[in-house]
Amino acid sequence: MNMKVLVAALVGGVVAFLLGWLIFGIALMGYYETNMIHYEGLMKAEDELNLGLMFLSNFTVSLLLAYVFQRAGVAGLRGGAITGAAIGFLFYLSVDLGFMAMMNYFATAAVMVVDVLANTVWAACIGAAVGFMLGRGKVTT
After folding, report:
1. Number of folded domains in the chain?
2. Is-contact 118 24, C-beta < 8 A?
3. Is 94 helix (H, G, I), strand (E, B) or coil?
4. Does 141 reside within a domain?
5. Would you say 12 and 126 are in contact if contact means Cβ atoms under 8 Å apart?
6. Would you say residue 23 lies in a domain?
7. DSSP string, 31-81
8. Cβ neighbours for 107, distance < 8 A, ≥ 6 positions apart
9. Which residue range(s) make up the domain with 88?
10. Is 24 inside any structural domain?
11. Mind listing the pLDDT tens digit for each residue in 53-97?
């Protein structure tokens, strides 16, 4: 892993953090609150959130994408978005299917579909940012 991968992951982490706040914290917050099964104490109050850990979580997913992209030769906005979407879709589908199989977390299967699609868009945008950063300075023919 080199400095270019780390910088791409850092930029991707910032994109993930801000876009996650917009998608999950604003746009879909009401939907999730209405359509998820609530358990006392499961979710922290807004003033108890640890934003440092949240950023570290976002940086980690960006680092994963940056590492995979570098190894696979993915660079550029378009390639990063497509590959990020594919990885995000498969990963979050796996996670959410596991949740559906083992937990009483989603009220309906429709919530799972919305969650997978929202996370796919989120991962595509992170992938676009990471791919853009990895593709900077490359000569294309």
Report:
1. 1
2. yes
3. helix
4. no
5. yes
6. no
7. HHHHHB---TTTSPPGGG--HHHHHHHHHHHHHHHHHHHHHHT--SHHHHH
8. 35, 36, 37
9. 3-15+30-135
10. no
11. 999 999 999 999 999 999 999 999 999 999 999 999 999 999 999
Q: Report yes or no: 96 and 116 within 8 Å, Cβ to Cβ.
A: yes
* pLDDT band, very low/low/confident/very high, at 139 (cuts 50, 70, 90): low
Q: Work out the average pLDDT over 32-43.
A: 90
Residue with tokens 């959410």: 96
Which residue shows structure tokens 């990020």? 84
Mean pLDDT is lowest, of 30-44, 64-78, 119-133, for 30-44
Reported confidence tier of residue 140, pLDDT bands at 50, 70, 90: low
Find the angle CA(55)-CA(130)-CA(7) to the nearest 5 degrees: 65
The label of the residue with tokens 């706040």 reads: 21
* The CA-based dihedral angle spanning residues 74, 79, 81, 86, taken in that order and rounded to the nearest 10 degrees: -70
Cα–Cα distance, 93 to 122 (Å, whole number) = 13
Token look-up 């490359």 returns 138
Q: What is the mean pLDDT of the chain?
A: 94
Query: Is 55 a domain residue?
Result: yes
By the 8 A CB rule, do 66 and 7 touch?
Answer: no
